[in-house]
Amino acid sequence: MVKLIKIYFSFFAENDNKHPIFKSDGSRFKSSDKTIKFKSDHNYTIFIKSLPILDFKFLNIDGTVIDLNLIKSTNLGEYTATWSTKDIPITKNKTRKDLIIILSSTEGDLNYTLQTKFYDKDDNHHSLLGTELKTIVWECFINDSNEITVYRENFT
């Protein structure tokens, strides 16, 4: 039996609590028509929530396993994590970096690719051009093989 869920995924820069920027790239690149802009050598707080509530085990971003911290005070299945972009190189001009996201829960695993671009930590021009990305909303289904598949993605 297929189960439908929504996963809410947000990033905040720890130094200023700002969300990253995204821009539409059309079909110029293979992974997505949108690019999320991050700064190198930064720490980002990640906020994750699902409806209905899933029990998440871990988050893996581009091969790095990141501990998830359950926000117990809300009782709503909300999690935070800290992700460092310290060892991610700045993306060259006219290229993008596919960022592989694995979000594992007791009911299944989400494997998803975000199209990204990494800028110098001191860049205050190109990294700020676009629209603030407050939340990524993934509408998903969990199949009988415990795979979580995104069928619709919204950037808000």
UniProtKB/TrEMBL annotation:
One of its GO terms (cellular component) is plasma membrane. It comes from the Eukaryota. One of its GO terms (molecular function) is type 1 cannabinoid receptor binding. InterPro entries: CNRIP1. Pfam families: CNRIP1 (PF15043). Coiled coil: none annotated. PANTHER family: CB1 CANNABINOID RECEPTOR-INTERACTING PROTEIN 1. Belongs to the CNRIP family. Interacts with the cannabinoid receptor CNR1 (via C-terminus). Does not interact with cannabinoid receptor CNR2. Suppresses cannabinoid receptor CNR1-mediated tonic inhibition of voltage-gated calcium channels. This is CB1 cannabinoid receptor-interacting protein 1. The lineage of its organism: Eukaryota, Metazoa, Ecdysozoa, Nematoda, Chromadorea.
